[in-house]
Amino acid sequence: MIVLGIVLLIIGFVASIPILWTLGVILVVIGAILALLGMMGHAVGGRRHYF
Question: Which sequence spans correspond to the domains of the chain?
Fold first, then answer.
């Protein structure tokens, strides 16, 4: 999810499409939160890790 967010950030920046930039930021933030929760041992959505 983090990688997809970064790809959308790059595409949105290069193509000057603000919605892709916004979606990229949202995906990076959500992916980072899920990765941190998984590293701390909290199962979110039935999964222990998100990588």
Answer: 2-39
